[in-house]
Amino acid sequence: MNDDDHRYGALRESYSFEYAVLEQADKSKNTNFAFDTYDTYEWYLNAGPLQTLNDKYLHHSLPYWNDEMAHPNYDDFWKKEAWVNQLPASTVPNLNVAGFWDQEDPWGPWEIFRHAEEHDPDSTNFMVAGPWFHGGWHAPEGDSLGPLGFSGHKTALEFRKEIEAPFFRHYLHESGDKPAWKVTTYETGSNEWKTYTAWPPPTAKTTSLYFHADGTLSFSAPTRPESPREYVSDPSNPVPYRTRPVSPTYPLPNGDSGRPRTSASSTIAPTS
Fold first, then answer.
1. How far apart are the first and last CA of the chain?
2. How far apart, in whole angstroms, are the C-alpha atoms of residue 106 and residue 115?
3. What is residue 201's predicted lDDT score, i.e. its pLDDT?
4. In what helix (H) or strand (E) does residue 99 lie, and over which residues does it extend?
5. What letter does residue 55 receive in the DSSP assignment?
6. Which residues fall within 8 angstroms of residue 53, CB to CB, at 6 or more apart?
7. Which CATH architecture has domain 6-81?
């Protein structure tokens, strides 16, 4: 369903527009859009309706942005393109990798794993999830997420040494044992790696969490009606979620946005 460009139907404007320019503006190189305003939040706010960006700047030259504009909803065009409907099984060993705090692909890797699991006779479909943002498993160490430390664990380094390397060793070099687990996750509460033979684990049980009007979260249901908190959602005066001035989403990874990223969401090993 493309969770990169949309969140529950809402278009991620900066990601979609700038990535279309980056990938299709020049076929021989990646080209970042040349903003004439330092604060891109201000630029997008003043740009007007999305449909006008083609007339003002792109001149209908980018196929992907044209598709975005022609199909703003999840219609048959996007449904046909959705890879999630084309993965009833996998023909090669898969090591699907996800970050619990991935701002771009929190849904996709789990869906790849789930659909590949529908037909996996050789049991070669695996899932790993850690305490990472997008691509955080390739960080030098992965011993923290912002100010939160992981009690001495270097989660990214541990993943590469103890999970990824043995996976490739077995399937590419025919050396070492096949993984004895189906899913491995890093549990931040205990700061431990956990392995499971199935997902969800057979012993898991569903637990409800309740978000209360005062902003607290608990396992206890409200005992009396709570007055809702309200706010005004004004599209002409949106609330930025990044510190102003907002730099472009692209260029990355060496641009001025300051958010480390890599492009991979899953790792696939071909059979020998």
1. 32
2. 16
3. 93
4. strand 94-99
5. I
6. 17, 47, 65
7. Orthogonal Bundle (1.10)
Query: Does residue 134 contact residue 128 with C-beta atoms inside 8 Å?
Result: no
Please tell me the predicted confidence (pLDDT) of residue 2: 65
Q: CA 255 to CA 251: how far, in whole Å?
A: 5
Which letter does DSSP use for residue 180 in this model? S
Distances (CA, A) of 248 to 13, 37, 51, 146, 206: 11, 10, 20, 21, 40
One CATH from 3.40.350.10, 3.40.47.10, 3.40.50.1820, 1.10.20.10 for 85-206 = 3.40.50.1820
Return the bridge partners of 218, or none: 210
DSSP letter at 171?
A: H
Domains of the chain by residue range:
6-81, 85-206
DSSP 222: P
Confidence of residue 106 (pLDDT cuts 50, 70, 90): confident
Burial of 146 (0-12, 13-18, 19+ CB in 10 A): exposed
Contact in structure between 130 and 156 (CB atoms under 8 Å): yes
